[in-house]
Amino acid sequence: ELVLQQIQQSGLTLKIDKCHFCKTQLKYLVISFRKKELVLILINKMLYYRRFIKSYATIAEPLIALTRHSDLKSFQWSEACQNSFETLRQRLIGAPIISYPRLDQPFILQLDASDVGLS
């Protein structure tokens, strides 16, 4: 109620069909790729970071598989693609994916392999 009063006092208006009230959770940005070229751009942008993201090949597989289709009719952004994108995005913005080792302390070199890829 306080927020609405402030909006009114500021002379601002709201578009009611874009408003959500009394929600405990709100998904405010959904990215959906409709063209193969856009998915290729996304994958190419992440190529540098793949070595810093554990299980990158496995996570990115739905996106990579999507780019293998040559015809537009078989191109469909699925829930698996969305999950892949969300997971990669979270890994990129999460706790440091790139950091210098502390040479004064022991550290573990961890390798990962699967049927889909190595990382």
UniProtKB/TrEMBL annotation:
Provide the protein name: Reverse transcriptase/retrotransposon-derived protein RNase H-like domain-containing protein
Q: Which organism is it from?
A: Rotaria magnacalcarata
Residue ranges of every copy of the Reverse transcriptase/retrotransposon-derived protein RNase H-like domain listed in the record: 77-118
**Listed Gene3D superfamilies:** 3.30.70.270
Coiled-coil ranges per UniProt: none
Cross-referenced InterPro entries: DNA/RNA_pol_sf, Rev_trsase/Diguanyl_cyclase, RT_RNaseH_2, Viral_Replic_Matur_Polypro
